[in-house]
Amino acid sequence: MRVTADEAEEAAGAQAPHRVVVFVRPGLLPMELGIVHRLFTTAADDSGRPLYAVLTCASAPGEVATDTDFSVNVPHGPQVLRSADTVVVPAALEDYGPQERGRLAAPVRAALELIPPTARLASICTGSFVLAAAGVLEGRRATTHWKSCAELASLYPEVDVDPDVLYTDDRGVLTSAGVAAGIDLCLHMIRDDHGADVANTVARGTVVPPHRDGGQAQYIDRPVQRVDGSSTAAARAYALQRLGDPLTLEELAGQAAMSVRTLNRRFRQETGTTPMQWLARQRLDYARRLLERGDEPVDRVAARAGFGTGTAMRQHFREVLGVSPRAYRNTFRGGAA
């Protein structure tokens, strides 16, 4: 049963629940708004008392367009931000176009200035661009959707952008990766406020895991590269056809008809990395696809992808993706694995 803010405060008596205010903009993603309401409003203490009251506000109350064929009616204007304990900024369509450093619509900037300095701030997906433009992320670790991490880092070099994690929490300012990572972010805040038992109960009620292994690196789509017409193309084409073989630098240099030293230099110029680092990445991407599409044992996948042993591949998966091959397969194949 949905609990309104007034009902929550009345039930709490003298001790009002923690007030979460979601600040939305035109073109909002309804799922991100729903995540905040669903998770926080189902958090309760042992007596069933709501622990949070969630309000939605915009620069002006009324109908707000979404990125779907329906709009939402937002009852509150920005004034409710003055009483917020936590403010959550979801993404909006405007975040997906080219960004400009410090760009904020005047009504949005004015609304953000109403937030008390003691409030916790959080963003979901590309809502991080709003926090960055407002100067909130300066000197802090942050993330956003993996497709936008490079742009965020380029526009705001003073922000420590981590493209691999599902969410960050740095001194009262939190950010999350793409849409569903908002679930991980909200559960983290609930866990931080009231402990693992409350967060786990909320997660079970929503039928989501209380904690996901790894970060968003495992969700980045990296198809096996196609070979172009550059000077190391022959070596790369040769390697891609023999990922399971124990390839050497000398062997690759021979395919490119150049010395090992020249191969190393040209590889850095053309791919931004060394031949062996490039080869390791191609093997990882190939292994990911084998795990996603087949049922072969991990050791067999490791051999086909050129890692030699399952142990070596597990170590590489942990270092790069933050999860084991088995966990990766379960994520992308579930019960079919």
Could you characterize what this model shows?
The chain starts with a helix and ends with a helix. The protein has 14 helices and 10 strands. Helix 11 packs across helix 14. The protein has helices at 5-12, 30-41, 106-112, 128-133, 149-155, 181-194, 196-206, 233-240, 249-255, 260-271, 275-293, 298-305, 310-321, 325-333; strands spanning 18-23, 52-57, 62-65, 71-74, 86-89, 120-123, 141-142, 160-161, 167-170, 173-176. Strand 1 (18-23), helix 2 (30-41) and strand 2 (52-57) form a beta-alpha-beta unit. The chain has a 6-stranded mixed sheet with strand order 2-1-5-6-10-9. Strands 3-4 form a two-stranded antiparallel sheet. A two-stranded parallel sheet has the order 7-8. It is 42% helix and 12% strand. By secondary structure, it is of the alpha/beta class. The model is unreliable at 223-228 (pLDDT under 50). The protein is elongated.
How many beta-strand runs?
10
Query: What share of residues are in beta strands?
Result: 5-15%
What class, by secondary structure content? Answer: alpha/beta
Order of helices and strands: HEHEEEEHEHEHEEEHHHHHHHHH
Trace the largest sheet across and list its strands. Answer: 2-1-5-6-10-9
Overall shape: it is elongated
N-to-C span: 36 Å
The major sheet is characterized as: 6 strands, mixed
Percent helix:
40-55%
* Total count of helical runs of at least 4 residues: 14
